[in-house]
Amino acid sequence: MAQHTVTSYDQELESLGRKIAEMGGIAEKMLSDAMDALSGLDVDLAQSVVISDGRLDLLQRDVEAASIMTIARRQPMAVDLREIVAAIRVSGDLERVGDLAKNIAKRAILIAGEQRVPRAVIGLRHMNELAANQLKDVLDAYAERDVERAQAVWTRDAELDALENSIFRDLLTHMMEDPRNISFCTHLLFCSKNIERVGDHTTNIAETVFYLVTGGTMPLDRPKARPGASLAAPVEAQDEP
Amino acid sequence: MAQHTVTSYDQELESLGRKIAEMGGIAEKMLSDAMDALSGLDVDLAQSVVISDGRLDLLQRDVEAASIMTIARRQPMAVDLREIVAAIRVSGDLERVGDLAKNIAKRAILIAGEQRVPRAVIGLRHMNELAANQLKDVLDAYAERDVERAQAVWTRDAELDALENSIFRDLLTHMMEDPRNISFCTHLLFCSKNIERVGDHTTNIAETVFYLVTGGTMPLDRPKARPGASLAAPVEAQDEP
Questions:
Q1: How many CB atoms lie within 10 A of CB A5?
Q2: Is residue A97 within 8 Å of residue A135, measured between CB atoms?
Q3: What is the ipTM of this complex?
Q4: Spacing of C-alpha B151 from chain mean position
Q5: With a CB-CB cutoff of 8 Å, which residues 55-74 of chain A face chain B?
Q6: Which of A220, B151, B171, B188 has the most CB atoms around its CB within 10 Å?
Q7: In this complex, do A50 and B227 lie within 8 Å of one another by their Cβ atoms?
Q8: How far is A136 from chain B (nearest CA, A)?
Q9: pLDDT per residue of chain A (241 residues) written in tens, 0 to 9
Q10: Interface probe, candidates A9, A51, A71, A79, chain B, greatest B C-beta count within 10 A
């Protein structure tokens, strides 16, 4: 293979890497902005989250198309091929993280009429911070091809499920105490489910890092509650295997 | 290109098509079984749905790997390349439809303790039948490369959103009438959201059929309610663009 070919191939991989890094930055910001919009009942901020999702969708299609053209042009094998498959998978997960952040932002718009912010939002904020840190960690693990770090993130996903369980019970209690809480607590239930699904995509990315570096699949059971083990978490467990 | 090469290339495409057809059959059965399990509080049937999801995940990884190897080996261009990209996308959507059916099945296991089946399940059944028909239609459109049929399916997705709205209001009323309804009605809320997301994947597949046949993107606005247009539906609108 001529040197300039190798070089331009490396440039294609670098360009994929840059696009995924941009996607990660957008997804992280959407997630924290969506939660700020929800707890601040800030409609403008929520709408800005909805708008930024378009950029994420464009980048994902862009990564997918560029990856496929690179595979067709270069016919990469082994780790080179895994690099590109991983890029397609990670960009897909980040695109869906953006969708979930957008959904939280839309809920924020819907409940903005509420004059008070329910206590349960504090738990949601905490859950969202954990999910955002997990996402940042796994994207660093992806950038550094760090399998141990990816596995650590993957294992910590169980904390998100535990948090969702307690928020679920908290919101249910809230609803039972006063029927006027039912409508907006329902929105918060969906928000916590969205955050838990961000965690599922984070574990997907961790599994992709493992595949990228080793060529295999992560030799652990998913860090999820078992079906029926609790009311809230297990149902979306392995939502995105 | 030698004849035998063309032939074996065609065989690779046929094999992808067969795998996707099998995935479609499994996803459709999981969806109807999950709803039967929910309305019949049938734990065994629900568990069989959870188990069949594993086969769907395997098939999806299989289609993805085979597609990528075909791209690397054949360097297909234009419609041939779109064939394979479409296979990757459709298998991804079907895999997630399976996840959603599995989630409904897990909810069925969780609420199996309830001795009575809430009235709202009738609405859910209706919604699920509509979603299953839409899925069957779009898979036929994919098999026949029928753009008009795909667009018709895509447009009808708005009916699912409308149904989810009415089920959402119905369940909320149920919860407000009697706090003892809150816990299992919450599970049904998540079930209706899962069914609505099946509709999102169906519209994704419709868009993929359009891309496959024309090389372009569907020239219509998504058949979704606008943000804030209702309490329930718009929030997950464009959940999976």
A1: 11
A2: yes
A3: 0.81
A4: 16
A5: 57, 64, 68, 71-73
A6: B171
A7: yes
A8: 22
A9: 444 456 688 898 899 999 999 999 999 999 999 999 999 989 999 999 999 999 999 999 999 989 988 888 888 877 888 899 899 999 999 999 999 999 999 999 998 877 666 677 899 999 999 999 999 999 999 999 999 999 999 999 999 999 999 999 999 998 999 888 898 899 999 999 999 999 999 999 999 999 999 988 887 665 554 333 333 333 443 343 3
A10: A71
Taking contacts as CB-CB distances below 8 angstroms, the residues of chain B near A238 are: 99, 102
Q: Report how far residue B142's alpha carbon sits from residue A40's, in angstroms, rounded to the nearest whole number.
A: 45
Over the Cα atoms of chain A, what is R_g? 19
Helix axes A43-74, A3-40, angle to 10 degrees: 160
Distances (CA, A) of B109 to A98, A172, A230, B50, B190: 31, 19, 11, 10, 14
Nearest CA in chain A to B107: A235
- Tell me if B81 and A72 make a contact (CB, 8 A cut-off): yes
Domains in chain A (CATH in brackets) are 7-214 (1.20.58.220)
Q: What is the DSSP string of A152-208?
A: HHHHHHHHHHHHHHHHHHHHHHHHHH-GGGHHHHHHHHHHHHHHHHHHHHHHHHHHH
B202 to A92, A100, A169, B11, B241: CA distances (angstroms): 17, 18, 33, 27, 11
**Which residues have C-beta within 8 Å of that of residue B144, sequence separation ≥ 6?**
none
Please name the residue that has the structure tokens 């329902």: A186
Q: Which two tokens stand for residue A65?
A: 């198309």
